[in-house]
Amino acid sequence: METRAEPASLETLPGSRPLLEIRGLRTYFYTESGVGKAVDGVDLDVREGEVLGLVGESGSGKSTIGRLLVGLIPPTKGEIDLFGEPITGKAGHRHLSRVRRRLQFVFQDPHGSLNPRMRVDDCIAEPLDIAGGLSRKARADRVLELLEIVGLPRSSADRYPHEFSGGQRQRIGIARALALRPEFIVCDEPVSALDVSMQAQIINLLLDLQERFGLSYLFIAHDLAVVRSIARRVAVMYAGSMVEQGPKGEIYRAPRHPYTQALLDAVPRPDPERQRKPTLSGEIPSILNPLPGCAFAVRCPMAIGRCRSERPMPREIAAGHLVACHLA
How far is Cα 177 from Cα 186, in angstroms, rounded to an integer? Predict the structure, then answer.
């Protein structure tokens, strides 16, 4: 997958303000079988103008974090500050309703996220209609402007979602996310349902939009190769916990957590002779009533007795590089 070079503006500036701050975030689901810890003590930041890649296997909890940010599910514990104000608790919900324009979401499934009974212009204009305040002409002009921004012809406005390819539908979803001119967009697996060539096109579009409008992204994905083409900082989740965070160069050049190393080993390479042998077997353990110690210990070839009895806490091993592993 070839993408264009990332602009310098994607670098996290030391003095940039944090748009998102997460501290001690926990989300538990209570069932007859026990307590499911979907997110269990996560700390995370996204700064102004930054693209943060959040990576992990299915079931790691990364998409749950995206849904927490937009208020689709409530947190059990912890604090989430968005644009400098909390969005947890009753006061936080009021703040979240005030900043809806500034925070938007791009969904994984470009087909399921669009109402098949609505024309494209109505799909894109739905946030504008909810926000109100636009005349019919201004609404129509904004829709046509958004179609051009995402690379679709103006004639698309009168058609229905089923008349478009998967990549085109994702462009429509991105246009809808841009409708209210947000500052921060949560992209939840936005290219996982697309073929490789279309993935590159959508990532290039997101990079162009980031540079043009100064956007910040939380880019959620399970594929480290995809994240490498867009993010400047990477956070790796496993079984509801953050196991490694750091600058992209550090993570890809010298991963310190065995899980991150295993994910990188699984990335396909164009040269078969350079393809690493997969080192990861088994599946993420159930989040119901997890065992003590490191959740990765049951799959880790390096695990020692301490790993199975004591949960490792994140510690900084280099500037901005945190790892939750006793052996790092």
Answer: 10
Bridge partners (DSSP) listed for residue 82: 20, 85
Residue 9 pLDDT exceeds 70? no
Give CA–CA dist 239/244, Å, rounded. Answer: 13
Q: CA nearest 209: which of 106, 55, 62?
A: 106
CB distance 309 to 292 below 8 Å: yes
Q: Which amino acid is located at 275 in the chain?
A: Q
Instruction: Write the pLDDT tens digit of every residue in 271-318.
Output: 666 666 666 777 777 888 777 899 999 889 889 999 999 999 999 999
Q: Report how far residue 46's alpha carbon sits from residue 80's, in angstroms, rounded to the nearest whole number.
A: 11
Q: Using alpha carbons only, give the angle 71, 72, 73 rounded to the nearest 5 degrees.
A: 90
Tell me how many helices (H) and strands (E) the chain has: 10, 12
Q: Please, which pLDDT band fits residue 270 given cuts at 50, 70 and 90? A: low
Within the chain, where are the H helices?
A: 62-69, 89-98, 120-131, 136-149, 166-178, 196-213, 224-228, 248-253, 258-265, 305-309
pTM here is 0.90
Task: Report the distance separating Cα 116 and Cα 123, nearest Å.
Answer: 9
Q: In angstroms, rounded to a whole number, what is the distance separating the alpha carbons of residues 290 and 278? A: 25
If you write DSSP's letter for every residue of 164-187 in order, what string do you get? S-HHHHHHHHHHHHHTT--SEEEE
Helix (H) or strand (E) holding 106: strand 103-106
196-213 and 166-178 are packed helices; what angle lies between their axes, rounded to 10 degrees?
20
What DSSP line would sit under 22-56, residue for residue?
Answer: EEEEEEEEEETTEEEEEEEEEEEEEETT-EEEEE-
* CA pair distance 188, 112, nearest whole angstrom: 13
Instruction: Provide CB contacts within 8 A for 185, sequence distance 6+.
Output: 103, 104, 105, 106, 177, 215, 216, 217, 218
What does the DSSP 8-state code read for residue 241?
A: E
CB atoms within 10 A of CB 206: 23
What's the CA gap between 3 and 211, in Å, rounded?
15
Closest alpha carbon to 124 in 176, 47, 84, 195: 176
